[in-house]
TrEMBL record:
Keyword 4Fe-4S: no
Keywords in alphabetical order: Transferase
UniProt-listed SUPFAM superfamilies: Acyl-CoA N-acyltransferases (Nat)
UniProt organism field: Chitinimonas taiwanensis DSM 18899
Protein known as: Acetyltransferase (GNAT) domain-containing protein
Length: 143
């Protein structure tokens, strides 16, 4: 697989990115929403093969203390081949120098992120716009 990597937003096909997130599956995120959140992220990366978008991810960061990796997506046809690890490693390299790098994982994917050096936080808490749905999906716990 001959990959090309892109780190800026020049020429990003936001509709293709939206389709990637639906297929991954990371939910129904519109092209306009993804353009907004990727534009507001300090770091981002996109992996292409022969012009086809295969994977993407982004990191919010403050430039020194805290970075947050989010929205790591890989086409299902390319999952299990190490591409997700490459995306995370690209973002970790970009966030190097931050005192802490945080992410939250899709329930059941914790072992994937452990392989990359992440450990479970004991104090992480969140407020979601639909907490009942996130409780059902396993992202939140009331205990």
């Amino acid at each position: 697989m001959a990959l090309s990597w892109q780190y800026d937003l020049d020429g990003v096909d936001w509709e293709a990115l939206s389709a990637l997130y639906q297929a991954a599956p990371l939910g129904d995120k519109s092209a306009a929403h993804l353009q907004k959140v990727f534009s507001n992220s300090m770091f981002r990366c996109f992996a292409y093969e022969a012009g086809q978008l295969l994977a993407a991810g982004r990191a919010l960061a403050d430039g020194g203390d805290c970075a947050y990796l989010c929205d790591i997506a890989v086409l299902p046809s390319h999952q299990g081949r190490g591409l997700g690890k490459q995306v995370v490693r690209q973002l970790l390299a970009a966030t190097q120098g931050h005192r802490k790098v945080i992410l939250y994982a899709v329930p059941g994917r914790e072992d994937f992120y452990r392989q990359l050096g992440f450990l479970r936080m004991q104090t992480a808490m969140a407020i979601f716009d639909n907490p009942q749905l996130q409780l059902e999906r396993g992202y939140l716990s009331e205990d």
